[in-house]
Amino acid sequence: MVRLCVVGFRGYGSVLADVILRNREKLNCRLVAAAEMLMSECTEFAKRLSDNGVALYDDAIKMFDEMQGKCDAVYIGSGISSHEPLTIAAVQRGFHVHVEKPPAATVQEVDRMLEAVTKHRRLCVVGFQAVHSDNIRFIKDRLLSGKLGQIQAITCRTGWPRGASYYSRNNWAGKLRLGDRWVLDGPATNALAHQITNLLLLASEHPYRLARPVAVRAELYATGSVEAHDTAAIEIRTDAGPTVHFLATLCPESKYGPVLEVIARKGKAVYNYGGATEITYADGTSQTCPSDPTHGQDNMLAEFVDAIRTDDATNLRCDLANARMMTLAVNAAHESSGRIHRIPDSFCHLKKHVTKDQFVVIDGIDDLMARSVENACLLSDSPGAPAWTVATKPFDLAGYAGFPQQFQC
Asked: Model confidence over 84-112: pLDDT tens digits?
């Protein structure tokens, strides 16, 4: 039996715990312990864990110390700034690690994590579950087989409304820094980081490996009191050849996506989060893959448990070294943008939801992003670009080893 524990179940760690609990019989794994510093704020879930025989802790390091020899791997679902220190502490005590996305805010943190993982000969995977989903694999397999032909363009467009409650849910949401540590929270780095990873995976010629970013041009924007970006337009040139485009906002006029499109010589693939994936071929035929209800979460757990049991990392689809490519891309996006560009209030309006949550909406953003996808360009390059957009220059990643170099906050 593979024994697992979770850190941070007040937030996304609760989802990780649920995935383990629902797969425990099928995969012969058990959730044996869980840690949450603010347990008083999630008493109902804590009781559920306790009722399932899970030992509870209010300190992750104490749990690591007491569970040595009683647990095989740690799931880290706490805040971004905790990922590096907790991953290193876990592998030093002999645990394999699943760390939630993003692996860390900066490439130098990821490199320190990799050094520790290698030194202590532990497995470390990153929670980009979408690369395990049936839908993304459906597209990837047809690219690898040549059925879709040579890639001509890959784009992702998303509008995910996030209100005031989203930014008040913890002490790091929407922040660039927390104390002396970088957070860089935003749609590209956190909320929609899965899609950056999907773009790099689909651009790669390898079944599992992500394409390496070579140069990045990006525009990062923010509205209202948000410190980090809430709107992003990113162009990533990869070593595999294809250039990919990511356009996302947390301030849309309506909710849509993520919609990921692959245009290739022999056809077009469209992935729409929560819906079926459609491929239309140039010869008029088509194929459909129904939505994966777990978005790859169950497949990801099964793969990790199998790797722990066999002590074989060969088939891990998103280990830490692979996920480093995503961190490189978003660090370079910040470097290219130079700073977070403020969108004046005069280009925005407020919208209240029935829940009384308050949302900032950027006027005309949905049409602007649609035009940018159609033209495979950034917001400032789009026809009819508004006055708040800011043109930027590409940032070359040759020899890049530490953030920041030219980003200013």
From this structure: 999 999 999 999 999 999 999 999 999 99
CA distance 85 to 187: 23
Each residue's pLDDT tens digit, 191-221: 999 999 999 999 999 999 999 999 999 999 9
In the chain, ranges of CATH 3.30.360.10 domains: 134-292+319-396
DSSP for 327-348, written as a single string: HHHHHHHHHHH-SPEEPPGGGE
Q: Is residue 339 within 8 Å of 223, Cβ to Cβ? A: no
Cis (ω within 30 of 0) for the bond into 161? no
Beta-carbon neighbour count of residue 199 at 10 Å?
A: 27
Q: Is 335 exposed, middle or buried (0-12, 13-18, 19+ CB in 10 A)?
A: buried
- Give residue 283's pLDDT band: very low, low, confident or very high (50, 70, 90): very high
Residues of the chain with CATH 3.40.50.720: 2-129
CATH of domain 134-292+319-396: 3.30.360.10
Record: fold of 2-129: Rossmann fold (3.40.50)
Q: What is the pTM of this model?
A: 0.96
Q: If pLDDT is split at 50, 70 and 90, which confidence band does 13 have?
A: confident
Chain-centroid distance of CA 326 in Å reads 8
Pick from 18, 20, 14, 6: nearest CA to 86: 6
* CA-angle at 282, arms to 280 and 287, nearest 5°: 25
